[in-house]
Amino acid sequence: MLAALSVFKVCGSTMVYYYAGLKSIPTHLYEAAKMDGASGWTIFWRITFVLLLPIHFYVAIFTTIGSFQIFDSAYLLTSGGPNYATMTIVYYLYQEGFVGLRMGYASTLAYVLFFIVLALSLVQRKFMGKDLQY
C-alpha cells in the first residue's frame, strides 16, 4: 500500500520532467529519421530514448532519494504497521530520536542513511550519468 501511494505521489512530477525532456528534443531529428525510412520503434530507441538519458538519470536519482525518505505515509497510514511491516528507515529514525529520545543513535542513523543514498547515487551516476554531446 505504501508503494502504491508513493508511485501516485511521484507520478505527476515525473511526467512533467519527461514532458519537458520530450519538448527539448529537436524535431529535425525525427524528420530526418522518417526520411531515412526508420520505423517508429527505431526512432524511439535511437532518438527519443537516447536523448532522454539525462531525464532518466535525474528521475532515477530523485525517486531513489525519495524512496528512502518515506515518512509521512508510514506515519499517517499505519504507524509502522502491524509487527513493523511498514517501518521505514526515516520512521525508525523518528521513533528512536523523538519518541525514544535517543538523539545520538538517531543522528547515527541519519548519517548511515546519507551514506547509503550517496553510494546508490554514485552507482547510478556511473551507469546512467553519461554526458551527451548533440
From TrEMBL:
It comes from Paenibacillus cisolokensis. Keywords: Cell membrane, Membrane, Transmembrane, Transmembrane helix, Transport. Residues 1-124 form the ABC transmembrane type-1 domain. PROSITE patterns: ABC_TM1. SUPFAM superfamilies: MetI-like. The chain crosses the membrane at residues 43-62, 105-123. This is ABC transmembrane type-1 domain-containing protein. PANTHER family: ABC TRANSPORTER PERMEASE PROTEIN, INNER MEMBRANE ABC TRANSPORTER PERMEASE PROTEIN YCJO. It is found in: Cell membrane. The keyword Metal-binding does not apply. The keyword Transport applies. Gene3D superfamilies: MetI-like. InterPro entries: ABC_transporter_permease, MetI-like, MetI-like_sf. Belongs to the binding-protein-dependent transport system permease family. CDD domains: TM_PBP2 (cd06261). It is a multi-pass membrane protein. It holds the Pfam family BPD_transp_1.
